[in-house]
Design goal:
The complex is a heterodimer of chains A (646) and B (248).
Chain A (H helix, E strand, L loop, with lengths): L5 E2 L16 H8 L5 H4 L3 E5 L3 H13 L2 E5 L17 E2 L11 H11 L6 H20 L25 E2 L5 H18 L3 E4 L2 E9 L2 E9 L5 E5 L2 E4 L20 H8 L4 E2 L4 E7 L22 E5 L16 E2 L1 H5 L9 H13 L11 E4 L1 H7 L1 H19 L8 E10 L2 E2 L12 E3 L17 H21 L12 H20 L5 H16 L5 H21 L11 H25 L23 H4 L1 E6 L8 E6 L14
Parallel strand pairs in A: 1-20, 2-3, 2-10, 3-6, 10-18
Antiparallel strand pairs in A: 4-5, 7-8, 8-9, 11-17, 11-19, 12-16, 13-14, 13-15, 15-16, 19-20
Helix pairs in contact in A: 3-6, 3-12, 4-5, 5-12, 10-11, 14-15, 14-16, 15-16
Chain B lengths: L2 E7 L8 E7 L8 H14 L22 E2 L2 E2 L21 E5 L8 E3 L2 E2 L2 H8 L21 H11 L6 H5 L6 H12 L8 H14 L10 H5 L7 H17 L1
Parallel strand pairs in B: 1-5
Antiparallel strand pairs in B: 1-2, 3-4, 3-5, 6-7
Helix pairs in contact in B: 2-6, 3-5, 5-6, 5-8, 6-8
The chains are: A alpha/beta (646), B alpha+beta (248).
């Protein structure tokens, strides 16, 4: 027991098959029980979230013959935030003949994750990557093509082979529309019951199994209990705990957090990916940050002035007074170093006083060389939409002046703990995509999130969930069952409580303040002292929230303030756990940089001897400390080495 | 900047609705239009009023959730721009701005500026997909797609389903949305087997939802934030006629 948490038992079984890694997935699939087609009709699965993971899972499960109930808070499943992913999706197709292979994708991903992911999972991901591209092409996803009609690829941060498939700067959109269309086909066929504008507010557990959810219809305000034989959470990441992030405004942790409070372990919450190429903050009114695809770093060169406080316009700074710092420090990878490395390097030059733009929080991403080398038309063809978007937001023309970029919160590698079958610690509760923790380790390489979302949804879960469902269907439930009624009551009490406070501060004002604390103390750089301070500030702010927040209106209809209030309330609890996780991990790895743990060059110093594990946290109770369970990580095939990109 | 906003307030589908005037000070030119509404809403909440309900999510011009008819134009005055990407530098100090929801028979108002666009989903359900079962797809390189076709398909596929086309159309037609999907899938070899049934089913669903017919007024493409061209509708008409003839 420590000041902030208690120690629990180690996690003994991840259900990963042992033996040769090349055949683990095949053997697991073969070992999984099958459900007779006639019995699938009798089984119901709830899927929460309709992004790449949830949309593809719901479509595939329905296609297999299960009855699926799908939920999203947006007005249409097509609007899930996967749609905003810009850059691309990796696959070990080796179409370029540049030495790529399933093993190399596996190797790069384990190394890129800073040796904090599971070998078995990542190996499976690399294998499935090949099938994903086939699947998406068959669906009509308009990937970029070469003149000969074959698929084009490009390279992405952290890789030296060209394995990223893309659809201009809108790959996420096209992949999501593919999954959405497959889902709509199943809705049209009557195999999926779609519930848009519905939010999951509680998990229903009966006899130790996940058996349903409590949802609120965001239009009517009606609260209902929904039952199934298994529940799948595909509800995305929790980056919005920072208030400013590249997430959509509605992204939230509520579905995961409600499950966590009911017993699902939450793993590695402190691993936050900070994306190096976002448009810098312009003012206090700012509601979100916009990412500029990492693919821009293929042709854009990152630099700052060599001299501190150089206020000249970028064009007036001569070549020899510029510091192309990524090319200088990391000559082998240059501008294509992984995200955590590029982000920290940008922070460092800005901390030195060499940042550009308002407040000195920005670095240049310059296309002058590329325009000269390739011509404006070629640059426009590759990145036109991104340039346009930049111009809209900043009012500056990136063809004429370099873009200004700064790191921003983008993706969360932590999430609910799952085993190899993607099942959480609650039987019958499966978690896929960004909502789980399993494949990216402490750092996520570019173009691997789309890969994981679709791998989980199209290929992994539909195989593994059958093994669980083979024991179903389970007893029929009704709304008056004790545990069902209790879950519903919890939701109603919470809403009543939020509406009754009627204080003098808006939900947004609390969220912004929480975000500032998190960015300051649990952002790109963390210290023991800062994290302790953050925990105390969060606790105070949370107490104030429950006394002073004002949620206007009532629960009987569309009430966007009420929606936000519930989500922010959960962010407070998550934020505290993130800080506790970051505090206990006294090493630097991936997106988690502890200032106390760095080498003489200021590079992150990992501590494999003490921290080569997944930190999976158990909810301790309202007034008790969380309990830490460790899952030891074994590296048989990719031996941990210092992750150097020099 | 100081602005005067006249905003459509409607408590629910059965309320008649009305324009309500609000003054907003300290508007920064760097704000997006939705951030302007955020600032106004915080003021309303603290003043004891209900905030204005509006749809939004990604705020980077891609999810298609944001809407708003601004001074009579869906997504406002800037071409090829969603409301979330419209910045206040487009406006001037002292301007008066009208803000209304999408208005179309097939998009009923839910509250204030929020409308129901699920009719679009049902058009997709009718055939806006390729029937490709998971896990049995042919190798991706087995069917080459000429680059010009792939590029043209991509252009059509960039439709974000926001519904501005419907809001701008004097007939309340959703033809540009429907045509974008038909063009996208029809340009690719994978989309050929279902090409005829797709266009017949989608156009039928479109009409059933209460969208009006297309009379080529072109208002839709003028406001489309993704620049989907009118040529998509020509393609739809061509495919439709072909399908009707093939059927008879």
């Amino acid at each position: 027991m420590t000041e902030f948490y208690e120690d629990g038992d180690n996690i003994a079984d991840t259900k990963a098959p042992d033996g040769p890694i090349e055949t683990r997935w095949e053997r697991r699939r073969f070992g999984a029980k099958l459900v007779n087609p006639a019995n699938k009709r009798k089984l119901t699965v709830i899927v929460v979230g309709t992004g790449l993971a949830g949309g593809s899972a719901a479509a595939t499960l329905a296609e297999l013959g299960y009855h699926v109930k799908s939920y999203c808070y947006q007005d249409s499943p097509r609007r899930a935030h996967s749609i905003a992913a810009q850059g691309g999706i990796n696959a070990a197709k080796n179409y370029r003949g540049d030495g790529d292979s399933i093993h190399r994708l596996f190797y790069d991903t384990v190394k890129g994750g800073d040796f904090r992911s599971r070998e078995s999972n990542v190996r499976r991901l690399a294998e499935i990557s090949v099938e994903i591209i086939d699947q998406c092409v068959a669906q009509g996803v308009p990937f970029a093509r070469e003149y000969g009609g074959l698929l084009d690829t490009r390279s992405f941060g952290g890789a030296q082979v060209s394995r990223t498939f893309y659809a201009r700067g809108q790959t996420g959109q096209q992949l999501l529309l593919g999954a959405y269309q497959a889902l709509e086909r199943q809705i049209g066929a009557g195999n999926v019951e779609m519930n848009a504008r519905h939010e999951m507010l509680e998990l229903i557990i009966v006899d130790g199994r996940a058996r349903g959810i409590v949802v609120r219809d965001l239009v009517s305000g009606e609260i209902t209990t929904e039952f199934a034989d298994a529940v799948v959470l595909a509800s995305g990441g929790y980056g919005n705990v920072f208030y400013l992030s590249t997430n959509a405004k509605g992204c939230n942790v509520t579905a995961s957090w409600r499950a966590h409070r009911k017993g699902a372990l939450f793993a590695n919450p402190c691993y936050t990916q900070i994306h190096p190429t976002c448009i810098p903050v312009s003012g206090d009114h700012q509601s979100k940050l916009t990412l500029m695809s990492e693919s821009l770093r293929n042709d854009g060169r990152v630099w700052v002035p060599k001299a501190k406080g150089d206020q000249r316009a970028p064009g007036a700074i001569p070549e020899d007074e510029r510091d192309y710092y990524l090319e200088r420090i990391y000559p082998a990878f240059g501008n294509l170093v992984p995200r955590d490395i590029a982000s920290r390097a940008a922070k460092n030059v800005c901390d030195e006083g060499r940042g550009v733009g308002p407040g000195g929080l920005g670095v240049y991403l310059d296309f002058a060389d590329a325009i000269q080398r390739l011509g404006r038309a070629a640059v426009e063809a590759k990145y036109g939409n991104l340039f346009e978007m930049y111009q809209r937001i900043t009012g500056e023309d990136p063809y004429e002046v370099p873009m200004r970029i700064y790191p921003a919160v983008h993706y969360t590698m932590g999430g609910l703990w799952v085993d190899y079958d993607l099942q959480s610690t609650i039987p019958g509760l499966f978690v896929i995509g960004e909502a789980n923790f399993s494949d990216h380790g402490a750092n996520r390489l570019g173009a691997s999130a789309l890969m994981q979302g679709l791998a989980d949804g199209y290929f992994v879960l539909p195989n593994t969930i059958g093994d669980y469902l083979a024991a179903g269907p389970f007893d029929k439930l009704t709304a008056d069952h004790d545990q069902v009624a209790a879950a519903r009551q919890q939701v109603e009490d919470r809403i009543t409580r939020l509406l009754a406070i009627n204080g003098d501060r808006t939900v947004d004002s609390f969220h912004r303040e929480l975000g500032r604390i998190m960015w300051e103390y649990c952002g790109m750089e963390r210290t023991d002292e800062g994290l302790r301070k953050a925990i105390s500030l969060i606790r105070d702010l949370k107490a104030e929230f429950w006394q002073r927040v004002r949620v206007p209106g009532d629960g009987e209809g569309l009430n966007q303030s009420l929606e936000k209030a519930g989500r922010v309330a959960d962010f407070f609890e998550l934020a505290e756990l993130m800080c506790i996780d970051a505090l206990h991990r006294t090493e630097s790895c991936g997106g988690h940089f502890r200032a106390e743990s760095q080498d003489a060059d200021g590079e992150a110093k990992r501590d494999d001897e003490h921290f080569s594990y997944v930190a999976a946290w158990e909810w301790g109770g309202e007034d008790a400390q969380p309990v830490l369970h460790k899952e030891d990580l074994d590296f048989e095939y990719v031996h941990p080495s210092t992750r150097s990109y020099k | 900047m100081r602005l005067k906003l006249r905003v459509w307030r409607q408590t629910g589908p059965d309320d008649a609705g009305r324009m309500v005037t609000y003054e907003v000070d300290d508007v920064s030119p760097d704000m997006s239009f939705l951030e302007l509404l955020d600032v106004l809403n915080e003021k309303l909440i603290l003043g004891g009023e209900e905030p204005i309900a509006f749809d939004h999510d990604c705020r980077e011009g891609i999810c298609g959730a944001c809407s708003l008819v601004i001074n009579g134009t869906p997504h406002g005055p800037q071409k090829a721009t969603t409301t979330c990407q419209l910045h206040m530098r487009t406006f001037s100090d002292g301007d008066s701005i009208d803000v209304e929801p999408w208005r179309a028979r097939a998009f009923p108002v839910i509250k204030d500026l929020v409308v129901d666009r699920t009719a679009f989903d049902r058009i997709i359900q009718a055939g806006g997909y390729i029937t490709a079962p998971t896990g049995s797809a042919p190798e991706a390189h087995s069917v080459p797609v000429p680059k010009p076709d792939a590029d043209a398909a991509f252009e059509a596929a960039t439709c974000i389903g926001c519904g501005a086309c419907v809001a701008a159309c004097p007939n309340g037609s959703g033809m540009l949305f429907t045509a974008a999907k038909i063009t996208h899938l029809g340009l690719m070899p994978q989309g050929q087997p279902e090409r005829d049934s797709r266009v017949l089913n989608m156009v039928h669903a479109h009409d059933e939802e209460g969208f009006g017919g297309c009379t080529n007024s072109g208002e839709c493409t003028a406001v489309c934030p993704k620049g989907i061209p009118l040529a998509a509708i020509s393609q739809l008409n061509k495919d439709f006629l072909h399908a009707v003839r093939a059927k008879s």
